[in-house]
Records
---
Amino acid sequence: MRDPTERPLVDSLRRGEASAFDAVYAKYRGRIYGFLLRLCRRPDVAEDLFQETFLKLARNAPRLAEDTDVAAWLFTVARNAWVSHRRWSMLDVSRLVAIEDDALPAAKVPDPDARADAARAMERMEHAMGSLPAASREVLLLVGVEGFEQEEVAAMLGIKYDALRQRLTRARAQLAERLAMVETLEVPA
Amino acid sequence: MSPHEQNDDDLRALRELGPIEPPRELADRVRRQGRAELEAVSAGGWLTLATRAWTLVGLPAALVATVVAYLSWAVTSASALYR
């Protein structure tokens, strides 16, 4: 999924050009914020992690490798920031329940048009995604929503390709199950 | 059929979810801070390099030279006492 047109952008970033940062930011801010919001399901946390991700890009820009895949770099940093946040949150007992409680409402996303079938399907998908365990949500967001190759996602998560395949299969089964559950609940009595 | 082509309808449906724009205020703040950080790290490039060179080369070399000078003085002085 490496974009060859990004090579000059990476060169400019390495030289510290603010316009390159703006270009990368404009291209990826929606994807990174959406990824983090769907992953952690708390807008306040997503905002902190979003800020952390892009400030890390700015701080590390001069040290980026020439062949850096910007998308993979950003998603890896965002995902690691979330993992780190979760680890620290686990130590804070008062927040433990909030993180693990799958009964929490899905994160606020732009209101879909309730009259449109497509919008309803997306709403169902957002709810089903929001009810999945974090590990499943993470892999579906990277492979499904963001369209990364599975090999790339395995590298991002620091796991073997086979393990990723297993995790993805399990996540897809869980998603299908949750979607069926949501649809059943919507059928009028 | 490659592993990537197996019944990918559910993954394609996920693709429809698309990005979510961050709140305007957050987006503007992060952009401003990012530009400032980038400017700071770029401007401080030579200073960072000099600091790293001093820490990795200059300081250890100065320490080694001091220790060698002290030891040779101590040996010379001690042997002078016995003469």
---
Amino acid sequence: MILVNYLAAAALLCTGLYVLLTRRNLIKIVMGLSLMEASTYLFMVSLAYRAASTAPVLLGPPAGRTARQLAHGNVADPVLQNFCLTAIVIGVAVTAVFLSVAVRIAQHYRTLDADRVRAMRG
Amino acid sequence: MTGPALASLLPLPVALPLAGAVAAPLLARLHRRLAVVAGLVALAGSTVVLLLQAPSVFPGLVRAHYLGLWTPVHGQVLGIAFAADPFGLLFALTSAVVGAVLLLYTLSELGGLGARELGGYACLFQLLLAALIGAALTADLFDLFVWFEVAALASYGLTAFFLERPIALEAGFKILALTTLASFAVFIGAGLLYAANGALNYAQLHNALARHVTTPDLIALGLLVAGFATKAGLVPFHGWLADAHTAAPGPVSALFSGLMVNFGIIAIGRLVFQVFGVAGTHALGLLLTVGVISALLGAVLALAQDDLKRLLAYDTISQMGILAIGLGSGTAPGVAGAVYHLVNHALFKSLLFLCAGAIVHRTGLTKLSEMRGLARRMPVVAVAFVIGAASIAGIPPLNGYVSLSLIHTGLLGGHQYLPYALMLLAQVITIAALGKAAWLAFFGHRERDYRSLEPLRPGMVAGLASLAGCCVAFGVLPQFFLDRVMAPAAASLLHPARYAGGVLSGTAHLPVPHLLFDYVSPAELAGVAASAVIAAVAAWGYLRIREPAPVRALRAVHTGSVNDYAAYAATGLLAVIAALTLI
Amino acid sequence: MTTKTTRRTRRTRTTSIGDGRALDHAARREASEREPVHRPWLGALLAAGVAVAMGVAVAGISREHASLPQIARYALEVALPRWKLTEPVNEVVYGTRGFDTFGETFLLLAAVISVVVITRPRERRRGYFGEETAGAREQAQTDPAEGRDDAEQSARLAERREQDDRASGGEEPQETPDTTPLGTSAPETAETMTVVVRTAIRIALPILAVTGLYLVAWGYSPGGGFPGGAVLLGVVLLAYAGYGRRKISAVVRPSLIETIELAGAAAIIMTELLGLLLKGSFSANWLPLAAAQTPLSGGIAQLFSGSELIEVGTGLTIAVFALLGMSHDWARDKNGGEDER
């Protein structure tokens, strides 16, 4: 049921956003951002889905149908799936950079509490 | 060269800096400065290819090329389009030229860095510049998002560059968290827009939205505007900007303030004007409101700062607000003035940040209250800073006067008197803030003299001189630039149907408005004189009184916590969506 | 008494950095004692608002009952005739909209270089850098008065020992995994894992490596560069976990891996650029198309995917090993003194 997908994506997005808005530990902020990323993947893939469709794959068509008929038939949207692939790479990249910044902060400030790493204010 | 052949060269200005970025870490192993020199060569190549387009595009032409030759089929576009219109070409040229000047400056000033450091720096710098040029020239929404991400990731590494400064790491994680939040907004917005309209190309989207605009389209616009406003540093999405600019190295702050924030404004301009077309939405009123708030808040907080680079960063927020006001006026002079101010801002803000970077690099001082009397020790920097400050102040014959007057004309022509008055107020406070900065840094008497300061190297002098010279040139020849460059760019924004037609068919001509700039308009000159006097008095007074309560409250709101800044951004997102859908 | 006056004077001064160490400690203690109470309910409210906005947007579009957008249908139609690819998603990723993936490659490169820059060791610089002076001043202000604890002490000692060890090319240490206590914060001194683990890894590694290469070469039909790269990273990490850093450093040399990664990125630029030179448009296909369902069927799609494998695999390896190899180079150590080099 596709509605469950959207509800799950919304729940993940809001949980991730809540973590980003309330939690002070840097690692928890990274986790919150990861939750938001995961929600966007789910959201894109769910938007790509069409009712009773098959995957956009033209390999090995079932008996009696050609690949060309599959291409014109009921398949999910490949363009949105491309979006999702790009977003996955972005997620990995951002998490890697954020974790290296977090380790450096721990070395300098000896804490991972964002509220104690606040020399720049006003 | 024929039109289509020239158009097919459009991805080259993006590919050349990318190649330079790939080569940079390898060249740095041979000799540290080779990486930066290769970057200069790559940007020179980009500039040449862009200048090849200029003679045909700037008189008022849109020229599009479909990568891989995947041209539209019955108005449906699967491939990625690169379109050279005057607006995008102007920003691409500005990025390439100012970026080259900044790299030259880096070569002189930061040439003493270690080989691996300098190689990484050059690589990230060029990746960011390539992303800016790509974003200016692309006509595809998802491609715009990809370049947004490339620019964001390069900016994280550049912000946290000087690892011995704890504030660099603090700024690094703030820019990271807030820009990632913005990127999610842009991504979801782009996905929603595609799901609702089945299109990714600006022209195809324009045609789909011209038929009717639904609520999901408006929510998508809200998400996109919120995401790009974070990049632009508009209030309330601005939490990361002051911290990142304070902590980054000098040329990197110049790059951020001069070029990277323009990315956000360019994207907002394209979406609001060229994709959605202003008729069906309240986007103009939204831009005016956000612009006025940003201009005032940025100016007030700039006046209150003691750290020089932080002052300049808040002034960037203020100038971005003025750009939003110009775009939001919706009239030809207003939009042309905003485009003019975009170029001017790239010039004078880079100049100011390079001067601030030179001060930090040579003296190790960051606070204005600790610097005094630098004019005697660093005269070139002092002159450059005063020119930059005068440009922002809008004093003729420098470039700020032209663009600000054009925006005033646009606002008055559209009968928007309240934004006009508030914009004047913001300008006065800005002049006061910059006057205070210039006075405290360069003039006055210091008890303890500085240690011997290194003289400026030729590359640095060349960089400062060229930027200052451009400030003067853009101020002295306004009608020339207005006719040849700014008015066509404004036409590109104000005639979205022609732009869309050009992108789909390959070429189209734009009707260029003829804008007259009255240099010696008595109202403007009187306004400049009055604001300069009031600002001088205000700055003098501000240095002597205690911090007023409203300013204290504003500063208390900027708690420095990433959670709070994210909360402000989320509130702003909801406010933007509500403004677009409910009103 | 001092803390009270400093707190009051803080409100009338114009800045919070550089007002003195006692000030910042007071501020820090204030911050950690007074938990901001507005955040949970404000956060919940904003998250709920965003959920409502997203809900309205999703409810307004026709989702699974809409017909496929025409550009998606076009992508499906051209997959076999124009690219001989039976996987339209790969055709969109590496072929028709290959420029997006081109940008994404440099996104990953930007992230890897950012990680390398952030995790870099300290290098010698020439000339006076005011930023270093400013940095030393700021570190003096923000360094908490508590000093370092045992965990940091042992970590710094182990780092120094490892660096000296590496510099002098020391011999193999005598420790086995069983004698090292669990949970130390120092880098591992036991080099390898037990013989059971090593044998299992020796069997699993070739299978995993072949799977990764299969994903790139076949994986339905050509185009598995990204997952192939991730599997390659998994192979390297498995070897690292089992065999230890000393054995892996002989193979995973940072300069070599970085060169390979940049070569992969350069290959991707050349792939796209040759389209411009040979076919007149930037990401056009210039390779002949083999028959469908063979490894070379997509034209430049397979070349692009293979270069992507190299770039992603090596890039992520660099990032992970850079993170693992970070040491306390930049944080001054007042209580011990010898970290400043």
